[in-house]
Write a structure and sequence with these properties.
mainly beta, 1 helix
Amino acid sequence: MNRAEEEWDGDVRAELHVHPEGTWLYVGEPHGILRVPLGEDGRPEAPAEWTPGIRPYGLAADGTGARLYVTDPAAERLLWHALDATGRPTRGVGWQVFTPTVAEPGGTVAAHPSRPLLYVANRDEKAAVSCVPLSEDGRPDDGGTTTLWVRGTAPFRKGLAVHPAGTHLYVSDPQARALNVFALDADGRADSDGPSLTRQVLPAPGPLTVHPAASCLYFAEGETGAVYRTALAPDGLLAPDTAPEQLPDFTAPHCTGIAVHPRGTYLYASTATTLAVTELSPHTGHPSGRPVTLPLPRR
C-alpha cells in the first residue's frame, strides 16, 4: 500500500438521502435506517421513525420516490424496499435482494431523476461505476447493466450525484483529489465509458450532491468534514476557472453523507451521531442562515 492509499484507507459512504417529494430525510444507522420528517420548507422536524435492517453504504430513492435502494458491500449485493405514498416502507413487504454478476457493488448509489436507472459504485477499479436499469417492478436488470471507468480511483472511494435534469453524472474521488463528470444521453446512459471532464481539486472530495437549481455542486471532505460549494456551468459541466469555496462554519467531520432539499432551501450533512443543517438561497445555493448541528436520535 503506497502513501496515497494509506492516507485514504477509508470508504466514501453516502448514507443520507432526501425523498424526491422532500418529505423525509433518510439516514443510515449501524442497524437500520432513520427517517427524519421534513417541514414544507425542508426544516427537520420530530419525531423520527426507524426501519431496522442493515447499515447501508449507499442510500437513494428512485426518481419516482416509490422505492428505496441501499448497497451492502459485505455481501456484494443491492437491496431495495417499496415505499408507500408517504415515503414510508410499505407494510407487509420486506427487503428485496439483487446480486449482480457484471460487477461487485460496494459503495454509494444514486438514481437518475426521470429514468429507471441507478448508478452504483463498485469494488472493481476497472469498472468503477455500474449503470443499472430498473424494470417496472423496480428489480435491477443484470443483463442490461453497463460499467464506467474512472482513472486512478479505488474501491469504495467514490461519491455519486446526478444533475437534476439528468444530463450529467458526477463522481468524486478523494484519493485522486478529483471530480469526474460523465455526460449522459437521453436514456441516462453515459455517452462514453470514461469521463468527459476530470477536475483536480485541492480538498479531497467525498460525498457529494447537486443543488436542484443546478447552480452548484456540494461535496464534503471526509476526514475534516469541511463542506465545499463549486459552481456549475449552464451546460452542467464544472464552471471553468473557479475553485471550490468552503462554506463558513458548516462541517461534518468523518462525513457519512450530504444531501440538499428538492426545493433548494436546506443542505444537510451527517456523521455517525450528528446532522448538520444550513439554510440555502433556493436560487443561488449560497448559505443564507446560521448553520446548526443536531444530535441524531438513537434507537
